[in-house]
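Escalated from tier 1: zinc ion holo job.
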Amino acid sequence: MSLGYADRLKEYPHKGVCGLPEKQDTERQLQLSLRTLVDLVSSAEHLVVLTGAGISTAAGIPDFRGPDGIWTTQNALERAAAGKPKAGAKRKRKPKAGAAAGSGAAEGGAAAPPAETRSGAIDFASASPTLTHHALAELARLGKLKYVVTQNVDALHQRSGLPRSKLAVLHGCIFEERCEACGALYLRETDVGTISFQPTGRYCTRVGEAAGSAACGGVLRDTLLDWEDPLPEAELTEAERHCERADLILALGTSLRIEPAGSLPCRHRRGGGYVIVNLQRTPKDSKAKLIVRAPVDRVMAALMREVMGLELERGAAGARWVATGTGGAATGGAMPEASSLTAGAGGAPASAPVAEG
Ligand SMILES: [Zn+2]
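Tier 2 regenerated the structure:
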């Protein structure tokens, strides 16, 4: 793989608070919180989800600000090199140099990734969507979830089968490239390799609808933001619009420390509020309707079971949701039909645009 995502970013000193301790609710507290969350999600009519790196740590992709996050590790190394005592972080292991890329630009993690993936280079292309990615795709397919906003660059939402039209990728994606002429968006199997909207060396193959049309041929550029690059305006506007309409916003696996994404949960205007599921505290905790300190996959598995009556089955052919036979009534509708998903195989063929700009 080419240079990791984190290594590709420019030097930037203002990365925010890193290395805060991760906490988990007691089992009793978690059960109480899950009961409240099930009620909130069941009654939500315009559910929006904001995701961060914490939803991808279970796929082996490190986060940024967790105890073993990329920025936490980098800060500790810089402080050590400068002869300063380490900051409040509780981490004890000495990281290897050249920590790998992470999954989004801001987050506290969920389940800790395997140790080898914390220090070595991550092959993003071999990471598969987690239970949470699959759950969000299924909730969107069933119409329960209206929109997903992600800060992650790992394409796991796209590969879970979540339609790109229901997803805002605010910080860009290492697997996507866009045509500067017609706006066509391509999802690739491999990292496109550049950052800050540089030409990737490929050209648009989109063919117009009129008979005899030639391929567009426009220059393709990466979509990946460096620190000071502007966010994709259309997707940010759509994200804001959905958050303003939302009667419930779930912030999953994000420490809400990067703006403007971090403030999106506060934009609801229908009195619904937002729920945070994250192991670290966040600057938005005080206004949250509910805070759940538990791994996101555990919370989403419980929600899918209790609200939709579904559980994830993983087999050789991929992952699929099947009826548990015990739930489903909470939505007030018929038991949703179980769907088949092929893990890791979402998205369009390598040369076909997946969306237009
Ligand atoms: Zn084009």
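The mean pLDDT is 82.
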